[in-house]
Design a protein that fits this description.
Radius of gyration: 18 Å
Structural class: alpha/beta
Organism: Hespellia stercorisuis DSM 15480
CATH architecture of the largest domain: Alpha-Beta Barrel
Distance between the termini: 16 Å
GO molecular function: 5'-3' DNA exonuclease activity; 5'-3' RNA exonuclease activity
Protein name: Polymerase/histidinol phosphatase N-terminal domain-containing protein
InterPro entries: PHP_dom, PHP_domain, Pol/His_phosphatase_N, Pol/histidinol_Pase-like
Mean pLDDT: 96
Strand content: 5-15%
Pfam families: PHP
């Protein structure tokens, strides 16, 4: 049996739940295979694989790298699976996390100027080595300064041209693919339906892309049909996952709700 969710985040990055809590839920949902794909870091990846095995679930190390297609001006997320080392992934990921942390600290200072009461040390406790906007928003809810994580503060300040609506510069998507491949892993284009970045595929395939995320909350049936056609054309396998973030995801997707395509099982064959 192959019941896999290959797109799961933990509290190491921007999920409200620890790997342990997620694995407890995974056993209840009947998952047999998983991958934790924290953003831009392999921190605790090996530990998470061992932890999953203790729950009777087969896992491979994972990561989700934030990147950009500069030619087409589109954000691109690249999932990495089954890497044998992490030097190339970490070289890119550490710089991305540094920029993201600096970006969020700048947003915190803007919020202070707007009159919000913020203790940075308390926000730092909510995350790992990097602050994410979800940690800031969660802190504002917990201190009674916002009614919901994705409420008015999020919509008016962090989105829609608000004072904190700015982002970082990301690495090139092809470089992310090359890094994962150089570390002996499988590089997969994440949720192309969400970011509408199909035009990046030829270049990503040339760089060594191995698969595309077929099943995802943001991929409608037209997207899945398109992904199937493209995977045949470029000889790629298909994956899938819930993109689980716990309370830190606006769509509140359930763990295991978007199981991976059976062709992704190829990544587990040599374990």
């Amino acid at each position: 049996m192959y019941q896999a969710d290959l797109h799961i985040h933990t509290s190491v990055s921007d999920c409200s739940m620890s790997a342990e809590k997620i694995l407890e839920l995974a056993t209840m949902r009947g998952l047999t295979h998983i991958a934790f794909t924290d953003h831009d870091t392999t921190q605790r990846a090996a530990e998470h694989v061992e932890l999953a095995e203790s729950y009777g679930i087969t896992a491979i190390p994972g990561v989700e790298m934030s990147a950009y297609d500069f030619a087409n001006e589109k954000k691109v997320h690249i999932l990495g699976y089954g890497y044998q080392s992490n030097a190339h992934i970490e070289a890119i990921g550490k710089e991305t996390l540094k920029r993201r942390d600096e970006n969020c600290r700048r947003q915190i200072e803007i919020l202070k100027d707007l009159g919000y009461r913020i203790e940075v040390a308390e926000i730092e406790k909510l995350g790992g080595s990097c602050i994410y906007k979800q940690h800031i928003l969660d802190y504002l809810v917990k201190t009674g300064q916002s009614e919901a994580i994705f409420g008015k503060v999020y919509q008016n300040i962090f989105k829609n041209g608000g004072p904190c609506d700015f982002d970082i510069t990301y690495p090139a998507a092809q470089d992310a693919v090359r890094a994962i491949k150089a570390d002996g892993g499988y590089a997969v284009l994440a949720h192309p339906g969400q970011q509408d970045n199909y035009a990046a595929l030829p270049g990503l395939a040339d760089a060594g892309l191995a698969g595309m995320e077929w099943n995802h909350p943001s991929n409608g049936q037209p997207d899945r049909n398109k992904i199937e056609e493209l995977c045949k054309k470029y000889h790629l396998f298909m994956t899938g996952g819930s993109d689980f973030h716990g309370r830190y995801e606006n769509t509140k997707t359930a763990l295991g709700q978007y199981p991976a395509h059976e062709s992704s099982a190829v990544m587990f064959q040599n374990m």
